[in-house]
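Page 47, continued from p. 46.
Same chain as before, 156 aa.
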Amino acid sequence: MKFTDALDRSAEDIVRPPQLPLGHYLLQVKGPAEIESFTSKKTGDDFDRVEFALSCVEAQDDVDPDDLEAFGPVAGQTLRRTFLFNTTDGKEADFDRSMYNFKRFLVDHLGLPEEGSMEELMASAPGMQCLGRVGHRPDPNDPEIVYAEIDRTASA
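Result:
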């Protein structure tokens, strides 16, 4: 559907769609990671953000069947797994913690071999699968808005 095709809909007919239900899903890495550098407006620290798009393959047994029915098909729904690396001088311990979590995701959760560089592992990630637990996080500026996000991953 195109946006212009939806403009004739009545505003009263538009309701908030349900969120992806809470629980575990089999997820697949959709493509290469996106890497972006930025400076935090809150702290002034410099960061590199590495983000993977993950596609839902199927819900696991702990996802409520009634919530799934209300949501509709989950296959193909996209979620993001993000890693933040603090690159500010003097924040090496923060960077190392993030690097360890990143390595854990690639090796322990996606099942990639530990040999090779992190760049090689990142390049091998597309198509790999893991389990992801989906949680709901309220928007800090508007608690009525809730985001479905991966709050934990594990090996499939």
